[in-house]
User: What shape does this take?
Amino acid sequence: MGRGAGFAERVWLVIGLVMATACIAQAFGRFTWGVVLPGARDDLLDGSNTMAGLFGTLNVAAYLVGTFAVAWMASRVTLVGLIRIGMVLSTSALGLAAIAPNGPTLAIALTVMGLGGALIWIPSPAIAARTLPPHRAGMAVGLVGSGIGVGVVFAGQMARYLDQRSDGDQVWQTLYRIEFGIAVVVLIGVFVFLRSHGDRPSATGGFGGFTALKTVPGWIPATVAYAAFGFAYILVIGFLVARLEDDSGFTADQAATMFSVLGAATVLGGLSLGPLSDRIGRRVTLTSAFVLFGGCALLALTGTQPWVAIAALGAGLMFSGMPALIIAHIVDHTTADTYGPAFSAATLAFGVTQMISPQIGGLLADQLGSFTWVFVLSASVSFIGAAFASRLEDRAPGSAETPVA
Assistant: This one.
């Protein structure tokens, strides 16, 4: 019985660490930019939304490069090894952002965050899925997404706390300093407690992982849906705070609170939609999620409460739930050898669209004088994603002959 208890503790320690690394990779390394954007924009970028969008683009462009790197490194480095490398990069970049004296330095930090984020995020769901029993693979993927949600909540609430207790100078940089300290602790935990346990690098996948991806039923609609998600979500997540402050008259404190509401919902999104898809199927769940996300983007344009809070809540639920469903679909139909390359290949399309999305959003905001059409564009692309998601082949989760777990 003691051994059983010890094994359970080990399992949840690994799950907790993987959740924490996902938090560093995505919540700190990417989504914190949406929280600090107004302050960093005014302090270092001369108030330019176009430049702020470009900096967001640098982050996701580096993430795209990182997906290529993972597809290549998967045959040379274990999944745990990839996470370790990614954590070193992400932690170093957070430290650089915490002391960045000018725009170019911050640009370098955001770029390295994007690269490290890809090396962490892509292997994370597989490690979590292998840690829990096969019939809980969907739950494992949802837990990893919840780690991102916890980080988003933390970033929003900490920004709110700092804003209330300072004169406004460099609050955004103080947030990065706090996140850097947390990342250092997680980095140490990863090197001490996260082990490969005999895992070997993948020996298959083909160029860029596309050979492996093509073995997944419905890989084309799944990939296009993932690309649509990448374009749509970042317009909402990246510009929500700026939209509320600049267009709707929200204070920095009120806007940060709405970002925290979105983050809190993110904690529950993967855990709720994953089990739901186990019952009613990935296709109908993902299609509905896209429609709801688009509706929330439009609802946020009201600029009044309680509609903005409802929109933030719904967007957060769908934001974490949609990628969890797409990842679960890939996990269902891949093996331990093919998951890494297959997911890397699917992530390439996702990476391209999220790379161009921030720049397009920033240009629209500057040219049209508001963020209204940014959110309309997000909703439109979400509905396109719903159309492709509706073409997925429904198959019972875990029915693949040799699942990752």
